[in-house]
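Comment thread on ticket #2218

A.B. wrote:
> Attaching the input chain for the structure job we discussed in standup.
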Amino acid sequence: MVMRKFLAAFVVMVLCGSACAEDVVRLGLLGYMGTSEESFQKGFDGFRDNISLEKLPEDTHSYPFIRQLVQKRREVHFYSSLMTMLMGLRSGKVDEVILPESTGRYVMNMNSNYQGESYTSMFTLRLSFGFLEGNGKLRDEFSAAILAMKEDGTLQALENEYVHNPEHKIRSLKPEHFPGAETVTVAVTGDMPPLDMFAGDGKPAGYSTAILTEIGRRVRKNMRFMNTDAGGRSNALTSGRADVLFWCKTTDNTVINHDIPEDVHALFSENPAGIILSEPYYTWNREMILKVRTSGGFLGIFK
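C.D. wrote:
> Ran it. Output below, let me know if you need it in another format.
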């Protein structure tokens, strides 16, 4: 009799706990510069509360996630690095994380314990290099080099090699050295592979590093890479330890124009006061929801 009561109580506890957990989905994100977790949560909730499901077409890849967002509130948790965010996912502190599709696929290729669902983002997202407001001359030199690389096909060739080529061998890159030239210190996080990452020797590698190596060659400046994490990017720049931030996210053309106001665009952009941005060097409109792979069945409730 005692055992029956124990088992009944256990089943009720499990079912209730599972149902309660479904009311709110804990979402992990790499922290956004220029906004706090609390401010981001408030904006995210406001966006969710103003979405009309009746207006969303059924045949667009982005809308399934937005429907999920409306049906179940996302409780946002900011992380300062990709590693700590994935540890939060594995330990059950968050239920899912959102990454650029290329980063999500990289993570899954490196670890079979994760599973992902790709979708078209609410926006077209862009990556730019960040500079202090008083460093407009350096920003303009970077922008001119990026535009030239777009025009002559170099930027697309590097993207094909480092982002879209599954056979690419990851290796660190050593920028060309120009005796007597200015040295530019760039803050590298390694938190967005294969765009921003470190090779096995602990040195910067990936698409952004390849771009900076090419920019250094074109503007004839020495590039020095400094390791930081995503949460420390802004401080690295404002403290003077770095001249350039590796990546700053901004939004562009909307996918759901009538449902996304300007303040939501601002929420998903990283352009804090005092920081200016280069021309974007990479854009994407597909992201991935990453979760821990489960075995299913009764035991599958224990992630």
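A.B. wrote:
> Thanks. Noting for the ticket: The chain has two domains: 24-123+289-301, 125-283.
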